Amino acid sequence: MALSIASGPTNTALLDQTIGSNLEETVERFSEGDALVVVHQGIRQTWREFNRTVDDVAKGLMGIGIEAGDRVGMWSPNYAEWVYIQYATAKIGAILVNINPAYRTSELTYALNQSECRLLVTRTEYLTSLYRDMVEEVRPDLPNLEKVIYYDTDDWSALLQAGKSISGEDLADRGASLNPDDAINIQYTSGTTGHPKGATLSHTSILNNARYVGENCGYTEKDRVCIPVPFYHCFGMVLGTLACSVSGATIVVPSPTFDAEAVLRAVSDERCTSLYGVPTMFIATLGDPILGDLDVSTLRTGIMAGSPCPIEVMRGVIDVMGMDEVTIAYGMTETAPVSTQTGMDDSVEHRVSTVGRVLPHVESKIIDPETGEIVERGERGEYLTRGYHVMLGYWNDQEKTAEAVDADGWMHSGDLATMDEDGYVNIVGRIKDMIIRGGENIYPREIEEFLYTHPAIVDAQVIGVPDARFGEELMAWVQHGPGEQLTEDELRDFCKGQIAHFKIPRYIKFVDAFPMTVTGKVRKVEMRDKSIAELGLESASDTETA
Questions:
Q1: Residue 519: predicted pLDDT
Q2: What pLDDT was estimated at residue 541?
Q3: Which of 495, 430, 424 is CA-nearest to residue 457?
Q4: How many CA atoms, within 13 angstroms, populate the side-chain half-sphere of residue 222?
Q5: Residues 205, 212: contact at Cβ < 8 Å?
Q6: What pairs with residue 338 in β-bridges?
Q7: Residue 290 per-residue DSSP state
Q8: Rg of the Cα trace of the chain?
Q9: What is the largest CA-CA distance in the chain?
């Protein structure tokens, strides 16, 4: 029997470039092609125009004293300025620190201090997020922060004015001094206990990851990619903006934050060929009543990632939205982010039951968490990956880095996975998500996939809650389809005889939605805490992660 280890093809060489030099190449090749369309701001730029704006912002940053290696925080929903700052910092070698737009004061303070940001770029406000008020509240606690630019005020024009003192030669010289292996991005992982960790990524890691993911989607300069996922996350800024700039495809931004109707209108009006999202976003888009009134026939591909895709959702994406070539991607912030992806011509079964095969220049293996030995194909174990895409480390945290990346360069994901004979990987859960009920090891993903098969269920999430007799018991949070009705007894009857009795949820809660992170991941820790409180259970030690 073969072992669960695989290597991606190496017939194409890795790009040995900085993000800035790669952008310059794209501008030379596709200067008059559409680069950036931000629907909600009325912005439309060719690659030549986009690059000129990026250069103006880069000069502005140099004009106010930002040096290579300095950290620049970006705290904002999806606006054009986010993209300008992303590429401008890359051109001058400043390290972009992505700050979750949902952060509040304590989280903001931690991220800015831990990364020692000299500059923060943000808005004054967006909906209920009063960014200026929060910055002013914590400013005394930020000794390294020298300047804040509110890009929706005169600060932005002042930044551009500061760049007038910087010549094109000055900017080019700065760019020429940079190395592709330099740190260029810090992304804070969403920790559920303790503080988040700052995964530090290089030009090489995110630029090549964007390239290979884009190639798996078949991107050319003729593609137009609708990106409703947040830029602060790798999904938005690597698989989104960078995959477009590597290939010459158009970046289409439908709205500051996810809005299903805005997505559909952008796809229709801009003739998008590709659409991104987590499964919950696609569920909302498929369920939006405006879908039937719009022409989305230009769609052919896209990326679904973040959580498992129910087969009914995948069929809707293919049959209703015409995305025959939609792909599934898997990875983590620490791996820039993708290590496996399905192909455009993979079967629907592969796209709902696996996360594809390893990307070029990437290695993957699955090991026994106890012994460290590689397991046989088809057996469960922890997923590990190694290659150019693995982070440089957690910013200023050697101890946590050593825990995550071993001496041989393998990144330990904490995810339980299997690998089949053809090299397709299936993520079956988190090691820490495993529920132990009366000595039985139970993986929530398996039960969730079974519950998806009920015709009245749109989505389901399974968690473990404390139990005096069994240690843990199962609880399912279940989301109905529109107009559907289902009782707890009916759902249990549906399970009987189909799954083992100990896998049938003892507790069932019907909900309209799940608590989510900004990136669309379900927050199981929050679900667990709420359930314990509502059921009046005594909390056991918290062993679960979201």
A1: 66
A2: 35
A3: 495
A4: 5
A5: no
A6: 331
A7: G
A8: 23
A9: 75
Q: What is the mean pLDDT of residues 172-200?
A: 88
Residues whose CB falls within 8 Å of the CB of residue 178, separated by 6 or more in sequence, listed in order: 18, 20, 68, 93, 203
- 302 backbone φψ class: left, alpha, beta (φ>0; ψ -120 to 50): left
Cβ(47)–Cβ(55) under 8 Å?
no
pTM (predicted TM-score): 0.85
CB 115 within 8 A of CB 108: no
472 or 246, which is more confident:
246
Residue pair 391/39 in contact by the 8 Å Cβ criterion: no
Give the integer Cα–Cα distance in Å for 234 and 276: 12
Q: What does the alpha-carbon distance between residue 454 and residue 421 come to, in Å, rounded to a whole number?
A: 30
CA distance 233 to 81: 16
User: Cα(511)–Cα(504) distance, rounded to whole angstroms?
Assistant: 18
Residue tagged 């088809």 (tokens): 378
Residue whose C-alpha is closest to residue 380's, from 415, 416, 405, 352: 416
| Amino acid letter, residue 77 | P
- State the number of CA atoms in the 13 A half-sphere of 462 facing the CB: 23
Report whether 206 contacts 238 (CB < 8 A). yes
Question: Residue 546 pLDDT > 50, yes or no?
Answer: no
Average pLDDT over residues 100-111: 90
The span from the CA of 431 to the CA of 367, in Å, is 12
Q: How many CB atoms lie within 10 A of CB 28?
A: 11
Q: How far apart are CA 122 and CA 159, in angstroms?
A: 13
Output the six-digit token pair for 300.
Answer: 């052919």
- Between CA 77 and CA 96 the distance in angstroms is 15
Contacts of 349 (CB under 8 A, 6+ apart): none
Q: Which domains does the chain have, with CATH numbers?
A: 15-362 (3.40.50.12780), 434-535 (3.30.300.30)
DSSP state of 309: P
Mapping DSSP to helix (H, G, I), strand (E, B) and coil, where does residue 395 land? coil
Structure tokens of 328?
């599934």
Centre a 10 Å sphere on the Cβ of residue 292 and count the other Cβ atoms it contains: 8
Token digits of residue 288? 């939006």
HEC readout, 432-445 = HHCEEECCEEECHH
